[in-house]
What does this fold into?
Amino acid sequence: MRFGVIGAGRIGKIHAANIAALEGCEVRAVADVDEAAAKALAEATGAKVASIDAIMAASDIDAVAICAPTDMHADLIEKAARAKKATFCEKPVDLSAERIRECLKVVQAAGAPLMIGFNRRFDRNFAAVQARIADGAIGQVEIVQITSRDPGPPPLSYIARSGGLYRDMMIHDFDMARFLLGEEPVAVSAFGAALVDKAIGEAGDIDTAVVILQTQSGKVAEISNSRRAAYGYDQRIEAHGSKGMLRAENVHESTVQFAGAHGFTGDKVLNFFLERYAGAYRDEIAAFVAAVSSGKAPSPSGEDGLRAQLLADAADQARRTGQVVKL
Amino acid sequence: MRFGVIGAGRIGKIHAANIAALEGCEVRAVADVDEAAAKALAEATGAKVASIDAIMAASDIDAVAICAPTDMHADLIEKAARAKKATFCEKPVDLSAERIRECLKVVQAAGAPLMIGFNRRFDRNFAAVQARIADGAIGQVEIVQITSRDPGPPPLSYIARSGGLYRDMMIHDFDMARFLLGEEPVAVSAFGAALVDKAIGEAGDIDTAVVILQTQSGKVAEISNSRRAAYGYDQRIEAHGSKGMLRAENVHESTVQFAGAHGFTGDKVLNFFLERYAGAYRDEIAAFVAAVSSGKAPSPSGEDGLRAQLLADAADQARRTGQVVKL
Amino acid sequence: MRFGVIGAGRIGKIHAANIAALEGCEVRAVADVDEAAAKALAEATGAKVASIDAIMAASDIDAVAICAPTDMHADLIEKAARAKKATFCEKPVDLSAERIRECLKVVQAAGAPLMIGFNRRFDRNFAAVQARIADGAIGQVEIVQITSRDPGPPPLSYIARSGGLYRDMMIHDFDMARFLLGEEPVAVSAFGAALVDKAIGEAGDIDTAVVILQTQSGKVAEISNSRRAAYGYDQRIEAHGSKGMLRAENVHESTVQFAGAHGFTGDKVLNFFLERYAGAYRDEIAAFVAAVSSGKAPSPSGEDGLRAQLLADAADQARRTGQVVKL
Amino acid sequence: MRFGVIGAGRIGKIHAANIAALEGCEVRAVADVDEAAAKALAEATGAKVASIDAIMAASDIDAVAICAPTDMHADLIEKAARAKKATFCEKPVDLSAERIRECLKVVQAAGAPLMIGFNRRFDRNFAAVQARIADGAIGQVEIVQITSRDPGPPPLSYIARSGGLYRDMMIHDFDMARFLLGEEPVAVSAFGAALVDKAIGEAGDIDTAVVILQTQSGKVAEISNSRRAAYGYDQRIEAHGSKGMLRAENVHESTVQFAGAHGFTGDKVLNFFLERYAGAYRDEIAAFVAAVSSGKAPSPSGEDGLRAQLLADAADQARRTGQVVKL
It folds into this structure.
């Protein structure tokens, strides 16, 4: 599969390197408004620099990986779909659910495959939890608990254009909740506050948030987010069911324990999301390639992207109105 | 300190034995409508059988431990207060907040010490978490997470008169949330369903519940309850703050690990609440005795009992109305 | 079962309290050269003070618990056996294997039950490891690893009369090795040094020791001892077999974890042997009573006491000569 | 740095890929008697196929990585040293200590850098233990414990030419013991047996082994090996010192725990040494390149290779003679 990579920033580099390392795959072209970045990534992966239009028009490019800024995603997905490219796009499709709906109509009309980059579904630990749930290990899932905390808040400039914590950060957890619940939430309650940094609150956002989702049959998911954790990038999930419980604990920097007069100390958890999810990014692209190659619809789909966004919108509304929002 | 113990059932036996084993304490009298039970417990602790009135009237009894059924608690607390006994009463004071308020007025007017049996505050692990929070180990508390699951549901007959999951089971967690947050919740959102046993739902109750509490300053507590856990009595707490995180994990039956072709297996968590909290019950009575002996107000107080009840009422209302309830 | 307790020191108090708490058992008499200690313990357990001879002669005493200094053990065991008392004796029988052999002849001739206090066999964790080995969980045992470290060294005065680390401290581990191997060792290699405190070396003893035992069929046990561990009383065992591995980890002060910029910290391991093995002491006496009551030979036996002593002697010789010692 | 890779088998592929991925490094040539293997690896890394002599003679090759069979190591090291190539050689230098000594004389005379592939020193966990020891975290090291068990035994044909368990398998642990002790062992005691497979015993080797090493100052290392572990590739180390203890636990397949009526189950440990030590192999070559580039002697050195071999020889002799061997 021959890829065009659009966006040569941090996440573009990750995907391009993973594509280049995949058997039977190559990066043909890299596009970025930053010429130097495009050139460097093209050289590193044996590709050429090209414009977005050239990538879309190229008959020797089968797939595109969209790693551009969020506000370009929907337009690029539509272009790629019309050009009949298999499309992998970083989350989110757009910050507006309305725009996502329009975009998915274009994709559907074009009949081109689309996968959204909810990378955590491909984490070795989280994927194993979901697979064992699907195998019936814990019977019926009843309560899902997701704890997700960043090591530290992003710059305020990023916060301002992020769409807010629910759409920018908890979006991953909404997707994970759906992945583990196996049912659509129909009610959302959301609380949040700016406890980490008052400036985040002054910018109209929150940095600490807890949300409950409930499905029609009564299953519940609780999601807990913070923009700051002193001990690293805290990423845990737990699913409680009729026959037992599955949980994926954090990944620590090492297995070393130091015991002394103070007690027993182990390392922090992996701090950087690119290290924490390095394997997930690899397996994600491999899953995209495997699905497209075998003619299956890649998953998570555009619809999954929309559903997560609707939950984020509902959470935002729930918190602002102080009411439970029904979907 | 010379105690009268009212109620010779399961929890009465625990408290009586712990009182008898405490340096400087003794059980003087035991009362129970079940004469045989009263006699057996009196013999085991070197006490005599007496009526409730006799206990209240006895000049050689300094304190009473109320271990009778819930619907007798408020009346007994009032009697004991009027008799100027130091009173330890099992939770809850009453299932009606109005009745609790009246009762606490009587206690206050009498000026007698009263402690409510929220035993989990005295668990070695949970107490350590609270003590380290108080010491500033994690800075400002921002998110509290409480996971509390019974090994299996009680009989339906018990459910019917229990006051419902929030007042019967989650009441402990409401108290724990207040204990760890260090601030009063002002908003409550609650979800629940009967997923463990439909008959519980038909009886008007739930067996699976998730609640969020938020304080005025924005701190959040999430509480997760189930009436059934395949792996034992699941009792965990976690507090996330500006400088770090504290958590108390479950207590397992042993430290043994068995590794084989299937992986690594450890024991279930302690299954029976009387075993899990054996030390907490001992330390609870010791704390009551220590407080009363030194003239300090015992804690948790009657007011703590009321506060937890108000949260349970709010959660019940929140779930029934599908709305966030403000306090 | 009516006990006479000989020795009212630290360990005598433990055993007496456990006997008194056992259904159907009582402490009838306490003997100690320290009159005050005897009197205090007698009062605490509802017993009377008596001389050793009176205890031996008393027709209303069925069993004796020997908690006197080591150099009195063998004489007292012989007296008790001749008096047809069921005898529980703290380890070791004697520091001389020759003396132990004589003593066991007397016991055998008298036909009285004798149990030696290797308390660790009754630890909930270690007992579970042995039980699962016996159930075949790990197939054939091949390698046993025992790590045993005291929180700190005893006074030099104690070291001087202790018989040396192998006979005083590692004696427990020799018994545990036999318990887990299920076969008698036939070869012993031993290394040791005074690394904790030079004065221990100057007193002719060691404080750091590693020993290997091998059985006829080739199974191996490795034992690691230190007189000092900064993080508490380190007590771990592991058994590796054809089908898997069993291990019992340390018991920590709590299950609390504190996570911060430094990493994740848990509590030290229980520091004091009387706390670490509180349950083992209870179960040990209960096992003695159960065996004697049902007419079975209590275990561990006097022979077990002798075998452990012979291994200690062999280890001592192996270290001093720098040679492997065959048994 | 431009490398010639000699040997295109399993380990040759690992090193070649790691060299190719290192900034500023490339594989120039690959040699192997198996032409097809050489060609495939050359293509995968952008190198050409060449003979060993051509590699040695090439002026555009700075370094060689020797990944050929053990019996070729010493000859190849000598050739490379005479050709003034920086040399990385897989362990062991040779199965004969005498041959190693000769070889190291040639290397010394040539003045060319040589590093031996004791990969475990570069494992993230083990390296951290050693670094913290070096930083004084646990004070003086007193006892080192190394547990090393393969998932399953190699083919008998491999056993026959392996040099025996001590030289083939425990050689890594001898190096690790020296790495952690920071002192040379002067006495060796060794036990072993063929408990996993009798055929291994009939072939004159053992599959289960425990060894003690002691240094002049009295520090002790215990090493425990088995050729089979039902639960995966068991790789653990522990160091006990005057101020505390450091240990590196196993690396598991995931962090997932499944709790049910049976207890709590986690995954096996990583089963395949190439996965378990993938990072160690990367860091090992990077350390070689960094040392050579900066003109420092790479470590572990040829002398380290010799020392480990002498300990293996001593252990073999100790076990065969049933005596402690002094070095």
Summary: The CA atoms of residues 124 and 280 of chain B lie 7 Å apart.
